[in-house]
Amino acid sequence: MRDRPSPDSRPTTRPTSLSVDLAVLSPQDGTLAVLVARTREARSRERWFLPWDAPRGEESLADAAARIARAVLGPSAPVVDQVLAFGDNRRHPGDADVSVGFMALVPRGATPVQSPEFTWCGVMDLPILAPRHRAIVDAARESVRDRLDQSPIAFRLLPPTFTLSELQGIYELLLGRRLHKASFRRALQAATLVEPTDEWRSEGRGRPAQLFRYAPKKRRGARRGVRFDLLVG
Amino acid sequence: MRDRPSPDSRPTTRPTSLSVDLAVLSPQDGTLAVLVARTREARSRERWFLPWDAPRGEESLADAAARIARAVLGPSAPVVDQVLAFGDNRRHPGDADVSVGFMALVPRGATPVQSPEFTWCGVMDLPILAPRHRAIVDAARESVRDRLDQSPIAFRLLPPTFTLSELQGIYELLLGRRLHKASFRRALQAATLVEPTDEWRSEGRGRPAQLFRYAPKKRRGARRGVRFDLLVG
DNA sequence: TGACTTTAGTATCGAGTTGTTACTAATTCG
DNA sequence: CGAATTAGTAACAACTCGATACTAAAGTCA
Predict the structure, then answer these.
(1) How far, in Å, CA of B130 to CA of B120, rounded?
(2) What angle do CA B14, A90, B143 make, to 5 degrees?
(3) Which end of chain A has the lower number of beta carbons within 10 A, N or C?
């Protein structure tokens, strides 16, 4: 990369090597997991990496991310969301100058990986990734947490029908803290986000739980005051 | 851009033209404004653009954005936040394949532009920008709104000391709705985000207002339940 | 000077929301 | 059968929020 001064002239772009990288998140065995694969060559210090590629042809960033997701997860295309672009000196497996991180959220179990040696790995127990990939995973988790109550992303981590306890478990997993059952259900009911099906699931012992599906009916969010939920310094 | 198949081999990056683009937001005359400049050449359909450039040398994306901000606003360096990367077919003034949008928030008035013909323009009254620049402005506004109660960004739009009415006005500007005075102040006090100075400001008629400064003291945000504040469908 | 207006800031009250504790319901396990 | 386990609900106290109303301190204008 050479420096090129632009004293007072108009700016110009510069050729840069680009990658699109994907953090696939899913609840596995009661914890949040990421899809990672092992490198074949031994010369790099970081032995594991996230799925990634460069955009092809006129493909947009989002299209490239969706293609990578399909390559790893099969044709059942999960939605991908952009997380952040990284363009600093943290190392990337393909030495990309700039990497645009995306995330995909997929339900529990329902995700047999077909491609090469991709495997689930709990976020608390990640192997050593290239620093830029590690940053993308962290940014993806933070992004999910931040958007959890503005956006129905929790439902992407569940199959089409689910029990309310499962839904609450997803929220607890993502927020990293326990929630109160009655309050959770009250809030859920007030938001009219789910509707009951007439099926029930018996999960081993205990009373069977009713299955629900995601069926948002909320029209206008009752606009509240500001809450200053920040946790500063 | 040529297509290059990668059937089962390892992915590689591809050279791509890159830009870093900046949406500078500021409250001006009671409305939210963006810094834009007029193009000199008449051949392009979009006559206005945001400040932008390509990263130089080993400069990171954030460093490039900070440099662009300094070039436009002078050496008083405002913080820049990444908003989103755009890599689709929306046109960019420099025809960048990928543009990483950043935003800077600067206080009212305190921003005399020195560089070329940059000027404030109210967001409700924007001229025709290149579509990608327009998208960056929209994404920046949305990003501010989303992060308003998680992050103390409102204070970046104010000078070091301010009245509580000014602070409330910023929130109302960004959220696009009126807030209740007593509730706003109660929430502010509970969060211990500001502390009073011993100065007062007389703003024409009416009782003088006490000046406050941003001085966050909150340790742990009292963790509440989920609120499902989404406004779906 | 003294009413009137304007803006700042506080107090109080009632309606609504939230967390807790306790309860009932339906299943499996022994 | 009874104990254990999970689902789901009820009732209540504590808290939160928004509306209204109030006081305070300035300017305006007769």
Answers:
(1) 17
(2) 85
(3) C
